[in-house]
Every structure is written in structure tokens, then in C-alpha cells.
Amino acid sequence: MQTKLTALLIATALSATALAAPEKFVLDTTHTYPSFEVNHLGFSITRGFFKETEGTLELDRAAKTGKLEATIKASSIETGLGKRDDHLRGKDFFNVAEFPTAVVKADKFIFEGDKPVKAEGNLTMLGVTKPVTLNITPMKCDMRMGKDFVCGADVTTVIKRSDWGMKAYVPFVGDDVKITVQVEAEKQK
């Protein structure tokens, strides 16, 4: 009886240790979409998204820690109007010839229970690095279609684009930019 109890305690301790280990994920590039909204002349909201994003996520839900690193290819911007997209890729806005990517790195995660609700880190864009706080809602981790273990969420923040040197047409084109990223990340085996 004591041998069975000892074996059960060891198995429980080992499984708890395995669950407590950090989980590593890769962003699913087919289900991760950074998008933005910015006011246009006070009349409407211009929306767009970036088609190419890659990155990694590490979560330790037991320790309530995490790390995120995501790289957005700035030239993959899409607003539905080719001429506007070309202008946004130019020197007035993203200047993709000189700054081909924007990078988000976050290493301070704030949890409620076992789910992260905020991540604090930095956004590097146009050669400027500034702090950002990312709001995370809702965070769900589970099997996707019975094949892959995936975590997904909507991540949002609001930045002042002029803080990164993107000052063209402010205030006519809004300085405040709402960013939303629909994220799915696949657990690495």
C-alpha cells in the first residue's frame, strides 16, 4: 500500500512539474492579424492590417510570467486602396525602404487567475523604441480541431504615432492609433 502511495505522490509531483514548465508557442501566421484604426479628417475611421507577422510566445501560467516577440513586415500593409497603401509604405508613414519591420517585445505579463490580461514591453518602429501596454482579451488555450494545442486572444493598445516620429498630416490624420491583433499561437512540441 505504501509503495502505491509513494508511486502516486511521485507521479503527481512529476505531472505538476510538467504543467508548471513554461509553454513555448509560435504565432500562427495564417491566424494572426495586426490591424489599426486612425481618424481621417474627423469624418471617418481609416482601417488597415498587416498581412505578414511572425513571432514567439512563452507562457508559464503557474509562475504567471510570459514573453512575447513579434515582427510585423511593414510593407505588407493593406487598407483596400493600392494608392493609399503605397503612400503608407513611403517616407511620410512607415518608410519601409529604411525600416522594413516593426517589432513588439513584451516580458512583463499581468495575470488574473491563470490567464494573462496585460503585457508590458516595447514597440520598435521607424527606429524608435517606446513602451507599450497590451491588453489581452479573452485568452483561450485549448486543442484546435483535435490536432494542435493553441492559445488565442485579441490584443489591443492605443499609441500616438508621433511618438515614433510618424508626424505626417497630424492633426488632420489622427495621432491616436488603435491597434488590435487577433492572435493564434501553436504550442511547440
TrEMBL record:
Give residue ranges for domain Lipid/polyisoprenoid-binding YceI-like.
Answer: 24-186
Q: What InterPro entries has UniProt attached to this entry? A: Lipid/polyisoprenoid-bd_YceI, TTHA0802/YceI-like_sf
Known SMART domains for this protein? YceI
Keyword DNA damage (UniProt) = no
The signal peptide stretch is 1-20
Q: Which UniProt keywords apply?
A: Signal
Keyword ATP-binding in the entry? The reply is: no
Please state what the protein is called: Polyisoprenoid-binding protein
